[in-house]
Design a protein that fits this description.
This protein is of the alpha/beta class. The chain folds into three domains: 39 residues, no CATH class; 250 residues, Alpha-Beta Barrel (TIM Barrel), CATH 3.20.20; 73 residues. Helix content is 42%, strand content 19%. The strands form three sheets. The protein has an eight-stranded parallel barrel, surrounded by seven helices. A two-stranded antiparallel sheet has the order 1-4. Strands 2-3 form a two-stranded antiparallel sheet. It starts with a strand and ends with a helix.
């Protein structure tokens, strides 16, 4: 696990964020006073490559019909992004997303075969077979968009089969309603409810983009991104791009519930010369994942200087576990009530979605109970 320290208030419970060392994001949060300082994640930098009819393109305001060709060799463009220093490349198969056309399949397979760095594939992945095929082929992650709304059972199955390798992409209207099928249809579903459902499924991250926005002209919708970060604990990636470095700085400053964005996707704004990957990297690398401006000045005391009223590390772990258990039970109850309401209204699809979400939270609560039993046994042994 990779961890990075920062200094927090002495009065706070210190803890750390864990990653697997290969960019697979947030794995756990555990209050661990014995470690001393709190830890945070650096925001990841993604580069977007849209592929339409075998070429890399740009979409003004997301309109596939008005795509602008950028590069005839997407593989070369991908290699260039990694050479410049991005963490991951996010491929969007526009033919598959908008038209259900698999004409780019051989090209994407070749990219996965020839590039050793982290390739995240999205666009029209609406079957278990295709998702598994891409992951087995070597994709770092696959991203489900329409399927996360229309076939949530499949997403649940994939998350169990491929832990930390399935993400969800959400294209959001200003009223927070979600679009599907390459922005071509409205789903009737809304941002927060789908994020909570997919959090229960165990997705690795959420990519959030604004429908109809042109990244070179319009600023990010900070209200939508704030709502997304507030809705779930999993990393939220700002996938709509930025106009300039000022937009990027504002994204790094976005904070709610002591959570920040997990990453940002860039593309044409870099190749058009508005800023470089090195400049973006400098801003992101200097931004703590959870730090609060008022908490960076006080040094963290050594373990021997821990205040007398601060509980032992073991009891802190127990307290955190009980808090997670309570949160899972509360979330399960919320979804259970929503399921009951939907079923009473003869809305089978919505009722089933909330029922599955409730079951997922109960499953996590059961895991928490098992961990608590182990922690209590360890605590009694130490006493």
């Amino acid at each position: 696990m990779a961890v990075i320290p920062f200094i927090s208030k002495a009065s706070e419970i210190d803890g750390y964020w864990e990653t697997d060392g290969h960019g697979n994001g947030l794995m756990a949060i555990r209050p661990t006073p014995a470690l001393g300082p709190r830890y945070f994640l650096i925001m990841d930098l993604y580069a977007r490559v849209n592929i339409l009819d075998g070429r890399s393109v740009r979409l003004p305001r997301g309109d596939v019909e008005n795509a602008i060709a950028l590069h005839n060799d997407p593989l070369a463009r991908i290699r260039s992004w990694f050479e410049q220093g991005v963490d991951h490349v996010h491929i969007v198969d526009l033919d598959a997303a908008a038209y259900g056309d698999r004409r780019n399949r051989d090209l994407i397979d070749r990219i996965l075969d020839e590039v050793d760095d982290d390739i995240q594939v999205s666009g029209g992945i609406r079957s278990h077979v295709e998702a598994a095929r891409l992951l087995d082929r070597g994709a770092w992650r696959i991203v489900m968009g329409t399927a996360a709304i229309e076939d949530q059972n499949m997403v649940w199955d994939l998350c169990r089969e491929y832990p930390v390798r399935v993400s969800v992409s959400l294209d959001v209207h200003e009223d927070e309603q979600l679009a599907t099928r390459g922005w071509r249809q409205n789903s009737g579903r809304y941002l927060e409810e789908v994020m909570i459902e997919m959090e229960s499924a165990g997705v690795a991250s959420f990519l959030v983009a604004e429908v109809g926005r042109d990244a070179l002209v319009d600023p990010p919708n900070f209200q939508i991104l704030t709502a997304a970060v507030a809705a779930v604990e999993e990393p939220v990636i700002a996938a709509g791009g930025v106009r300039n470095l000022d937009d990027l700085r504002r994204l790094t400053a976005l904070s709610v519930k002591k959570r920040r964005l997990g990453g940002v996707v860039v593309g044409r704004e870099v190749s058009q010369g508005r800023f470089t990957i090195a400049e973006a990297r400098e801003i992101l690398d200097a931004t703590p994942r959870l730090v609060e401006a008022t908490e960076t000045d006080a040094p963290t005391p050594a373990a021997s200087e821990r205040p007398a009223n601060l509980a032992s590390p073991v009891l802190m772990d127990l307290a955190a576990s009980y808090k997670r258990l309570a949160e899972e039970c509360e979330a399960a109850a919320v979804h259970a009530r929503r399921a009951a309401s939907r079923f009473s209204s003869n809305d089978v699809a919505e009722g089933a979605a909330h029922a599955y979400a409730s079951q997922g939270h109960l499953y996590r609560a059961n895991d928490s109970l098992k961990r608590l039993a182990t922690q209590h046994a360890d605590h009694h042994e130490r006493e």
